[in-house]
Amino acid sequence: MTCLSGVITMVILVDQKKATAIKINCWEFKKCGRQPGGHKEKELGTCPVTVHGDFDGAHEGKNGGRACWAIAGSLCGGKIQGTYAQKLLNCWRCEFMNLVKKEEEPTEFGFSATRLGIEKVLEKTKWKEFR
To answer: What average pLDDT does the structure give for the chain?
Structure first.
């Protein structure tokens, strides 16, 4: 019975890794090239989302890559989007944000559209990993 339990646990971990691997960041989805080393970084600059370490792991993304709507000054659509309040209406119409919302709502910690909500999800995730 212990062997079977170990096998089942292994399968679950493999499945979780597959699920994580298919979750992409905004710069990969939008193909903007503004991430460090990207094809448009020298021309247009680095998007702050790609280096926003405070949100690393949010919705299983890299840096702010799956929480871009909560980061001021993102460079979406070829222009600086401004503060959270200024850009949120555009973000709600964004195909990428809606993809993340659809993927994350059914998960244990769900989807968050606010900075505070994202910080709480990250805290819960870290607490769960710690236990």
So the answer is: 81
Q: Residues 112, 121: contact at Cβ < 8 Å? A: yes
pTM reported for the whole predicted model: 0.74
The confidence band for 130, taking pLDDT boundaries of 50, 70 and 90, is low
Domain count, the chain: 1
Residue 69 Cα distances to 57, 74, 86, 98, angstroms: 15, 8, 10, 11
CB contact burial 96-119 (16+ within 10 A = b; e otherwise): bbeebbebbeeeebebbbebebbb
Domain interval for residue 120: 24-130
Asked whether residue 12 is assigned to any structural domain, the reply reads: no
Which pLDDT value is given to residue 51?
Answer: 96
